[in-house]
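Case 605 in the screening queue. Each case pairs one protein sequence with one candidate compound; here the compound is alpha-D-glucopyranose. For every case the pipeline is the same: read the inputs, emit a complex structure as tokens, and attach any notable structural observations.

Predict complex for case 605.
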Amino acid sequence: MKKNMEARLQECYDELKWLYCELYHNDLNAFEYFVEMLRRSYEERKPALRKQDEARLETPGWLRSNKMLGMMLYVDAFAGNLKGVEEKLPYLQECGVNYLHLMPLLKTVKGKSDGGYAVADFRSVQPELGTMEDLEHLADACREAGISLCLDFVMNHTSDEHEWAKAARAGNPIARSRYFFYDNWDIPNQYEQTVPQVFPTTAPGNFTWLDDCRQVVMTFFYPYQWDLNYANPMVFNDMTENLLFLANRGMDVLRLDAIPYIWKQLGTDCRNRPQVHTLSRMLKLACYIVCPGVALLGEVVMEPEKVAPYFGTPEKPECDILYNVTTMCTTWHTVATRDARLLRRQMEQVCSLPKDCLFQNYLRCHDDIGWGLDYPWLSQFGIGETSHKKYLNDWFTGRWPGSWSRGELYNDDPRLGDARLCGTTASLCGLEDWDQLQALSCDLMLHAWVLTQSGIPVLYSGDEIGQLNDYSYHDDPDKWDDSRYLHRGAFRWDLAELRDDPETIQGQIFQSLRQMEEIRAAHPVFRADANVWPLDAGDNNVLALRRQYGPETLTALFNFSEYPKLVTNPAPGAADLLIGETISDRTLELPRYGFRWLLQEEQDV
Ligand code: GLC
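Case 605 output:
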């Protein structure tokens, strides 16, 4: 049934008011402003987007389709600017991409931008990349082409050059109340007792001294990223309006950057506070009322038990999509150890979540890999957290004897011994080393694994042609101290030219990926809401998973070791989807880093 905005507002009004008034101490004026702002934002929503909203309300499962395939990219690295991205849409379509995450592109300050995550104006685009009109034009073109667009909404902080920050620096008390300002270090020092550091090496400390106005300001990330104070309803009202502004430019998904950090409370670690969930629930309600076709992607890079609560409950949802961060880093742990047991356990946990939980699955993204593994479970094998992180980092930086991996450390703090890791998929798989065939198999097996998981698979631009690390950031004065630029290099169009040539590495990766993606898109058993459970393959180097949807049953096997394996065939009589043959043998051979997708239809089972 079609519902208009007022009906949706009425439907949610009591809950919204309750949450708002509870958080903001019955500030009814602020609440009324908030509701009027929602109405205003809806008035500004153009007909094409309203029509899409209605369509999506009728098909709430649109994100769960097995046809979804994502890619994330930097506009400048990929195509220079937004117009360039629009020109390159045919390439993205050739890649099969229908969900595109553009890395931050709003106004920022060169040298103090954190890759665009320090926003100086939520309503204008970085001039080098184009204009808001270009973004809207691109969004229209994507909608025509059936591609959904995702953009970051950096909500925890603003750049110190945002107009609020400038006014706060100049002494304006209203502007100061949007941030956390202190006359001296007393309270900041109390916070430091309990708040861990995000960037211990590149940006130590959680506060910054402002010499010109003789104030201390809260800066959990970089010193030029000032944390917003969401205890101030004005901040929540205005930031929600900014989010809806971007939604109205035609964004389909908004990525809530660093959402766990947005509520600060003295004496706590200032992460995942209950109030964060009130805020994310209210954001979800605001979108449902104004732009119900828009989804929220939560960036929750936390331990597994902290992640799932950001979905909210089926009756009171918060984020629509979350990063499957633990599976991502457990996958890399499995590459380094060849032991798939932890990954299997991780799958047991992920598969036991309700099917409404939709994950974004990936191997690499623009950030480092933090080693957030299940250490209590690993301890039964005598594996300790610090020594294991050291092993993983040694392996992936090629220091471990025999390692073919080529990454670099990120935020290495020798006191804590918990450095994180950077590098592209291809370089981490060993494509810079001599055994390219082995690296290629590993790279493809890992991609097959991502495509097998439930949720939206998102490729990192360049991975489709096996792009290697870019070491040129070492010589760039704005980038040299942030090793995440190792995997943020310019897209190699010269190498992409080779994608149709099966004699080249690029051609082999590109074509094999396309084949796997097409198989995935053709079989509903890959839908995000299929039944999925891990199997015991009888060999710790091999991960086995079963998916079932309607008449289709898929058995997937992945060999995480550099040795061929013989395993008992868990699905005799099934068709191997990659070679198109029925396999009746009782035992199956998996080549080094090989994988199998075995499909049975109901009549065969
Ligand atoms: C998120 C981004 C990261 C950025 C940080 C600060 O974690 O993914 O790249 O540095 O937020 O905004």
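Case 605 observations:
- The chain has a mean pLDDT of 96.
- The CA atoms of residues 421 and 564 lie 28 Å apart.
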